[in-house]
Each structure stands twice: as C-alpha cells, then as structure tokens.
Amino acid sequence: MIDRNTPVTDDELHVYVDGELPADRRSAVEAWLANHPEDAARIAAWRGLAESVRARYGSVIDEPVPDRLTLNRVMRKHRSWATIAAAAALAAFVFGGVAGWMARGASAAAPSEVALFTAEAFNAHKLYINEVRHPIEVKADEDHLLPWLSRRVGTTLRAPDLGSFDLKLLGGRLLPGINGPAALFMYEGANGERFTIYCSRLHEARTSFRYNANGGFGAVRWIEGNYGWVVSGPKDKERLKAVAIAAYDQVEGRTPPPSRGSADQLISRRGS
Amino acid sequence: MSTFHQDIEATIPALRRYARALTRDAETADDLVQDTLVRALRSEHLFHGGDVRSWLYTILTNLNRNRLRSLARRPALTPIDDNDAPDAAGPEAGGRDIERALALLAEEQRAALLLVVLEGLTYREVAEVQGVPIGTVMSRLARARVQIKAYLDGERPSLRRIK
Under an 8 A CB cutoff, do A69 and B16 touch? Predict the structure, then answer.
C-alpha cells in the first residue's frame, strides 16, 4: 500500500486518467486533485481531448465496411497478388538485379518492406566495405560487441564463424533500419575482400534463401522468426550461397559452429 | 471460415476507425486497412496465438509509418490552406481543431494517443504494438497531451488578439 501522502507524479495523473491506476492509489490521487486545482484542470483537459477524439472519429466504427475491405474480397485479391509476386520474384531470380526486386515491390503498389529492408542492407554494405580506417564501430575482440548489438536489435545475435571460408570477423556496427536498429557484421578475407551480414527486425513471412545482385555485389537474404538477414559480398552466387547457408546454420542454431574458437563469438544464455 | 479469419473480420470496423484518425483521410485510411488485411493473410503462419486485434494494430501502425517515410522521401506536396485559422465555433469546428491538433503530433505520439483514447488499448498492449517499453508509451502520451493542450489553449487566444 502506498502512502496516501506520497505526492502524485505526472505519470500517475496520466495513468489515472487512462483508468490504469491501481485501486489503492486512486483515492489518494482524487484527494490530491481536490487540493491541486491546476492538476485537476489538466485532468479535465485530457478528458476533454479524449472526448473530442471520440466525438470526431468514434462513429467510423458504425459505418458499413466498404466492399473492397471485406475479407472475402481481400482474400481473392491476395491470391492474385501472390501469383504476380511469385512470377516477379522468379523474374528477379532469373535476370538478377535490384530492378527485378523493385518490380516485385511495384506490383504491390508500394515498395514492399522486404525490398526496402534489402535496399538498406545493400546500401550499408556498399558504404562500409570501402571504409579503410573505420569499417566498423566495435571490434570483434571486444566482448561487448554481441551483447550490445543483441540488446539494441532485440534478439540474441551470433556473429557466424566464417573461418572455413577464410573470412575473419572484423567487428560490427549499429545502424538505423526500417523497423528499428539493425546490426551489421563485417568480415574480411585474406586478399581484402569484404563480406557483411546485416540483421534487423522484419515482420514478414519466413522465406528461403533469395539471391540478388547489383553492380559488383551480390546478396543472399532470408527471413525467419521476425528477423531478416542479408549476407552481402562480391558477386559470386555460389560462394555467397555457401556463406549464407553456413551463416544460417549458425545463427538459427541448426548445427553447432564448426570450430572451437567460434564459441567466443557466440553469446549463449543457455550456458554450455 | 477459421476463427482466425473471423477474428480479423470482426476487427475491420475498429481498424478503419483507428486508420481514419491516424491519417485523417478516409481514402488513405481504407487503403491502409486493405494493406493491413493483405499483410495479415500473407503472414498468417507467423501468428502463434495471442490477440489478433493487437497484431492487426501492430501491422497497421507499421505500414503507416512506412507510408509516411516514403512520403517524406518525395518532395513535399503540402496543400496550401489559406483558411487556416481555427474555426469560430460549433461542434464541426471542434472536430476540425482536433484534426489539426492531431496533425501536429509526431507519428509515434499520435499512434500511442489514439490507441489509448480511441481504441481503448492498455499501456501494455500499446507497448507491444509499438515495440517499445511501457515507459516510452507513457512519455509519448504525455508529450502528445502537452502539445495538443498547448495548441488548443495557446494558438487560439493569440489569433483572437490579432482582431
């Protein structure tokens, strides 16, 4: 039980007006309002605001739903879109290029979330692989790299061990993505070639691997469990696919990382 | 029709109401609802129980944010309204004031406010829809209320002083 004399905070006033204040504190707030006319006036203004919003828009709920928004209509349309999208995706696969991807987005009126997401990953790749001195923000050997990126991106991240491809993890950075923070991991090969792995939240259907190329770069992406991943690197479809599959197996926890050293690159909340 | 589809169908009128207030344009709002339904059907296999209604609000809120973002990339096409002073009186005037006040808010504040006062979601549900902690929802609500109150209290007296 909270003391009746505890001063009422601004937060509590909002919680009170929205009806979420626990009953044992409500009378204390009411007593406070009786003695604090300014706060009482604010409460009245907020209630008035809520009433104006409801007066203006509340009646929309009683309007008949237009034909095009009935579920049957949307389902029929959904099916025909799915066909177009599948055809365009196939075209994109055959001809390659972001142009194909864009066409797929265009068929659904606006660029799809996946197209925007992929474009962001591609841009990040192109921008940062050319950085000589600052390709990354936090180095791979700093232990806060993964906890930090995991916390910001909102899921437990692993930086895959790509040692079997002669790619060494340089480190990572945090980027703004279309749905919130995104993580970018950068890898470097012996001859200086660079690969990146981009990950961010993406509320889209699970997909298998999709390959896409633009200019000298290629990318393989997949979506799983509300997160999208894009592996980008030099345009070599077979190699990129192999790297992406290895990365997938590790980040989705399908098989254990291939070497012992990689355990350091793994944050495991489960122990082991 | 599955329970999932029935739950979606039952939420459509409320989605239209939320979208109308969010965009303040009937046609844009219905487009947004349509896109939300398409997206929901396409992602049906990602829905693992829980509240269909909150899930649909989440999709709609995200789609609207993407819509605004792509609008922002284009050159601005702001309609010039030379009759911009708040209207004198009457219930209609009140409605237009609230529309303008909502238009002033940052998108995430507007969504938080509407989900609470119009759609009746709890703070916890809004936090899930917006993908942020409850404390962030509360500060969005507080900022929205301060801004709207300042607009409704402040702008009009200053205009009255002019005449």
Answer: yes
Residues with Cβ < 8 Å from A210, sequence gap 6 or more? A89, A93, A220, A221, A222
The CA distance from B95 to B92, in Å, is 5
- pLDDT by residue, tens only, chain A of 272 residues: 455 567 888 999 999 999 999 888 899 999 999 999 999 999 999 999 999 999 999 999 999 999 889 888 888 776 665 666 666 665 555 555 555 455 444 444 456 788 889 888 988 998 999 888 888 999 998 889 999 999 999 988 989 999 999 999 999 999 998 888 999 999 998 888 899 999 999 988 777 788 888 778 899 999 888 899 999 999 888 899 899 989 988 887 765 444 433 333 433 333 33
Cross-chain CB nearest to A75 (options B41, B62, B141)? B41
CATH of domain A112-265: 3.30.200.100
Q: List the CATH number of the domain containing B29.
A: 1.10.1740.10
Cα distance between residue A250 and residue A271, in whole Å: 16
Which residue from A minimizes the CA distance to B21? Answer: A57
- Give backbone dihedrals phi and psi of A98, rounded to 5 degrees, phi first: -65, -25
Q: Locate A32 and state its tokens.
A: 């406070």
- Chain B residues within an 8 Å CB radius of A10: 142
Enclosing domain of residue B73:
1-78
Nearest chain B Cα distance for residue A118, angstroms: 15
pTM for this structure?
A: 0.54
Answer for the pair A231, A247: CB distance below 8 angstroms, yes or no: yes
A54/chain B closest Cα distance in angstroms: 6
Residue pair A269/A156 in contact (Cβ under 8 Å)? The answer is yes
**How large is the ipTM?**
0.84
Q: Which one of A10, A57, A72 makes the best mutation probe of the B interface by having the most chain B beta carbons within 10 Å?
A: A57
Do both B73 and B87 map to the same domain? no
Which residues on adjacent β-strands are paired with residue A100?
A: none
